[in-house]
Specification:
Layout: E1 15-17, E2 28-30, H1 37-62, E3 72-78, E4 83-88, E5 90-93, E6 98-102, E7 108-112, E8 116-123
Antiparallel strand pairs: 1-2, 3-4, 3-8, 5-6, 6-7
C-alpha cells in the first residue's frame, strides 16, 4: 500500500510517484481527493528527500567511500637484466603465469612471470599540499 502524503489513505488508485520496479516503501502518492498540482509538487520534493536519505543510508552501510584511487609504484626486475617502473592502480599475478598491471589510464599491461626475477609494489606518496 502506498499511503497518501496528505491523509494517509491508500493512494494506489490515485497519483503515484516513484520508480516502477521499486518496492512501495520507495514510492509516494496522493489519493484521488488530494491529487492537485500543488500537492504533486510537495510529493515530488518529499520523494526526492526520501531518495537522498536512502542513497545516503545505502552508502553508509556498504562501507564504500568514493575517492581518488590508490596509486601504486610497481618495480619489476627481469631475469635477463633490466628493470621497469610503472605507476599503477592494481597489480595481480594471474593463473596464466602473467603479472597483470592496471595502469592509471585504465589500460592493462601483462608481464610473463617466468621472465621476472622480482617485483615490488609500494604506495605512491601523495604530493604535499601547496607543492606542484
Amino acid at each position: 500500500m502506498i499511503p497518501c502524503l496528505a491523509c494517509g489513505a491508500d493512494a494506489s488508485t490515485g497519483w503515484v510517484h516513484g520508480f516502477v520496479p521499486s518496492p512501495d516503501s520507495l514510492k509516494m502518492g496522493l489519493c484521488r481527493e488530494h491529487d492537485t498540482p500543488d500537492n504533486r509538487k510537495l510529493v515530488k520534493a518529499a520523494w526526492r528527500a526520501l531518495m537522498e536519505r536512502e542513497i545516503h543510508a545505502m552508502n553508509e552501510l556498504s562501507g564504500h567511500k568514493a575517492g581518488v584511487p590508490q596509486v601504486w609504484r610497481l618495480e619489476v626486475a627481469f631475469i635477463d637484466g633490466g628493470e621497469v617502473t610503472h605507476d599503477c592502480l592494481d597489480c595481480t599475478p594471474t593463473p596464466h603465469g602473467t603479472l597483470q598491471v592496471l595502469l592509471p589510464d585504465r589500460t592493462l599491461r601483462f608481464f610473463p612471470l617466468a621472465q621476472i626475477r622480482r617485483y615490488d609494489l609500494r604506495p605512491v606518496p601523495a604530493p604535499a599540499a601547496g607543492k606542484a
